[in-house]
Every structure is written in C-alpha cells, then in structure tokens.
C-alpha cells in the first residue's frame, strides 16, 4: 500500500501552476502541525494513489487540485474547503463556505481554474522540494 500512515491528508496540486505552487507555499507556512502532505498531480505518487484507491473516475478531468483525506477524495471547491478546515483553528471558519450551494462554488472554482495560467502564469517544470520539505512533499 502506498500510504503506511493512517489517515494521511494529501493535497494533489498542479505542479506547474504558479497559483497552485503559491498556495502550497502558503499552506506549508500555515500548517504548523504538519497535518498535510503534498504531491503534484504530474507525479508518479499521485498517479499511483489514484490507481491504488480506484479514483480514476472521480478524478477524471481534474487538473488543478484534489484533496485526499485518507479515506475520500475531494475536488474543486470541496477540496479547497476541506483543505482550509484541515488546518484547524480559525481556518475552520471556511466551513461556512458549505452554506453556498456547490454548483455556485464550483462555477467560481472553474472560472479560476480555467484562467489560472493566464492570470498567474506557469512554470516549465514541477518544483523540487528542499531538503527540509522532503518529508512533506511526496513524489
């Protein structure tokens, strides 16, 4: 099995997207309890996680962000809200986002995802983790 730890939460992100990489950098700072691990969607780790847990159908067409809580995969606005609430503390306030209907949240999410390269740019390759981040960035 790919994940030996119980209930590991993993953010799968577009490794060439500047918005996604900026978000990961912010989360690395905010996640002081080190609850989250990270892997680019382009990585072998992400591909293996999706295959191992038979998530191909649920993740088809998602190329920006996914969140695995150790039991279930979340996409689009649900992923964003789950990630924020997983930080605990004041960040749980983002749970109020569930009061907005999912179709509205996902329309906004899709607009940003569709334009993320144009608005924020992209990199030529996925980032390489620094030695101090090796245990938090997978694959």
From TrEMBL:
InterPro entries: DCC1-like, DCC_oxidoreductase. One of its GO terms (molecular function) is protein-disulfide reductase activity. It comes from the Bacteria. Pfam families: DCC1-like. This is Thiol-disulfide oxidoreductase DCC family protein. It comes from Leptospira semungkisensis.
């Amino acid at each position: 099995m790919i994940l030996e730890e119980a209930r590991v939460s993993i953010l799968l992100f577009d490794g060439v997207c500047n918005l996604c990489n900026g978000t990961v950098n912010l989360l690395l700072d905010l996640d002081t309890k080190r609850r989250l691990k990270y892997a680019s969607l382009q990585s072998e780790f992400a591909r293996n996680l999706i295959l191992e847990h038979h998530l191909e159908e649920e993740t088809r067409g998602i190329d920006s962000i996914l969140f695995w809580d150790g039991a279930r995969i979340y996409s689009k606005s649900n992923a964003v809200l789950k990630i924020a609430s997983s930080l605990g503390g004041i960040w749980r306030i983002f749970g109020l986002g569930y009061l907005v209907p999912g179709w509205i949240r996902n329309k906004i999410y899709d607009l940003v995802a569709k334009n993320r390269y144009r608005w924020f740019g992209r990199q030529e390759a996925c980032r390489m983790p620094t030695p101090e981040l090796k245990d938090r960035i997978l694959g």
